[in-house]
Specification:
heterodimer, A: alpha/beta, 4-stranded antiparallel β-sheet, 10 strands, B: mainly alpha, 9 helices
Chain lengths: 264, 222
């Protein structure tokens, strides 16, 4: 496993050296909720094939940053660019943009009145305008990919949390997004179900999917992340490779955070 | 006993007035169909408009909903029927009954659906939006089906109440089932047409009541 991981890391170094194209760029992002300043000038660049983890104490603005990237929250000021195009402009068709930005939620948010298959095909038919037959083929392939082909006609209520989250990932991947945003994908899961979801994320990483992950799974971050970004009080205080962040943290807030988790 | 059956269960009288009673039943069915479809559609539309959370528009909707739920439908009908001509609007009883009773149903539907919509979790809206569904796709495929499922039992009993309320249209000269039965009773001096009308209402409403009970059970087991 460690040799494999080392191989992945050098592939990443290669990507950076070859200047893989930028998928997501956030510039000077500010977000106010009333008088409360949740994001205060955040800059972030994510290149193709990267897996970037956002870590930090709760209330640090990680989820808000993620939600600004597909405009589930409207930033107060700043810019968000997907493949070089500003998605905050007035002429942007946000529904077209959202097809290319997948999102996976903490609470899965599967549609409870639809089967796994229907959960996956809905946006394929209505947004990507695939035919019913095409959508069905894609749904089968995606559910098979996350290891749930036998559960294709199950309703969410008949699936475990981990299975529901994998269906949610399949629903997102079906639209062939350029980047997937994970908002604490394993926080609502029982401990024994976490690994199935992490396994799927690891597989996506190996396939070269670009991902931004808000997570408290520090061990997973350490093993799988290309880069880690530490946020506190709406600002990015430190960024680096897992070995830099976990092995040689510099900012006192990061040291506090890591020691509070007991990971150092 | 003899007088009861000749006064309430007189076959000759039924035969005599059957064409009128059937015509009345047909009017009741038409009236119900129009009122139910308009009321449900308008009520759903109002709930969707209310989701835009525009202050003035919402205030207007809330006033409409509260007034139409508070006033007796019979009173609304009579006021509309006898008051409209003074506003220069001359409508016959049928369209007036449609507008008033559909309005009442729309008010109840809006209020129920609004409660249902508020119960659907924010995550459902966000998941739908994050996959690029438009507002109407999100509402139509994701949110409304869940909201209607939550309110199906109370909505079903409201639909039944509305169908029964079509009998009120008899006071504004709509020749529906009750009105036809009343007229027949007056001409014949015999109450049998009313018995026949009651049977007619049972034919229309019993299936609805059975379906409503099923929905209530389904709701209870969920």
């Amino acid at each position: 496993m460690s040799a494999d991981t080392a191989g992945q890391k050098s592939a990443f170094q290669e990507r950076v050296q070859h200047r893989a194209p930028i998928i997501l760029e956030v510039r000077g992002l500010h977000k106010l909720f009333g008088a409360l300043s949740v994001l205060r000038g955040v800059d972030l660049v994510v290149r193709e094939g990267e897996m970037v983890f956002l870590i930090g104490p709760s209330g640090s603005g990680k989820s808000t940053l993620l939600r600004c990237c597909n405009r589930l929250e409207e930033p107060t000021s700043g810019a968000v660019l997907i493949e070089g195009r500003d998605i905050l402009g007035p002429k942007v068709d946000i529904n077209q943009v959202r097809q290319r930005i997948g999102m996976v939620f903490q609470s899965f948010n599967l549609y409870p009145h639809m089967t796994a298959r229907q959960n996956v095909t809905l946006a394929l038919c209505k947004v990507a305008r695939k035919s019913k037959v095409e959508a069905d083929v894609i749904a089968r392939r995606m559910l098979d990919h996350v290891g749930l082909s036998e559960r294709i006609d199950y309703y969410p209520s008949a699936l475990s949390g981990g299975q529901q989250q994998r269906v949610a990932i399949a629903r997102t991947l079906a639209l062939e997004p350029r980047i997937v945003l994970f908002d604490e994908p394993t926080s609502a899961l029982d401990p024994e179900l976490v690994n199935g979801v992490l396994g799927v994320m690891r597989m996506l990483r190996n396939e070269g999917m670009t991902m931004v992950v808000v997570s408290h799974e520090m061990r997973f971050a350490r093993e799988a992340a290309d880069r880690i970004v530490f946020m506190a009080d709406g600002e990015i205080l430190e960024r680096g490779t897992p070995s830099e962040i976990f092995g040689a943290p510099r900012h006192p807030r990061l040291c506090d955070f890591l020691s509070s988790l007991g990971t150092v | 006993m003899q007088t009861f059956s000749s006064n309430f269960l007189n076959w000759d009288i039924v035969q005599n007035y059957l064409p009128d009673l059937l015509a009345g039943m047909w009017v009741t069915i038409k009236l119900s169909a129009i009122i139910l479809s308009c009321g449900l559609i308008v009520g759903t539309g109002l709930a969707l408009v209310r989701m835009a959370r525009l202050k003035l528009l919402n205030a207007i909707i809330i006033v409409f909903v509260d007034v139409f739920r508070a006033l007796p439908p019979l009173m609304l009908l009579v006021v509309a029927y006898f008051g409209m001509p003074y506003l220069g609007l001359r409508l016959t009883g049928f369209p007036i009954a449609c507008i008033v009773l559909a309005g009442v149903l729309a008010a109840f539907t809006e209020e129920l659906l609004w409660a249902g919509l508020s119960t659907v979790s924010v995550g459902q809206y966000e998941a739908a939006r994050s996959t690029g569904l438009t507002f109407f796709q999100m509402m139509g495929y994701v949110v409304l089906p869940q909201a209607f499922r939550l309110i199906q039992a109370p909505l079903a009993s409201r639909i039944i109440a509305t169908t029964k309320n079509t009998a009120l249209a008899s006071v504004v000269a709509v020749p529906e089932l009750l009105s036809q039965a009343n007229t027949a009773q007056g001409y014949s001096g015999n109450a049998t047409p009313l018995t026949a009308a009651a049977l007619g209402y049972l034919i229309i409403l019993l299936p609805m009541v059975v379906v409503a009970r099923r929905l209530e059970r389904a709701g209870a087991t969920r």
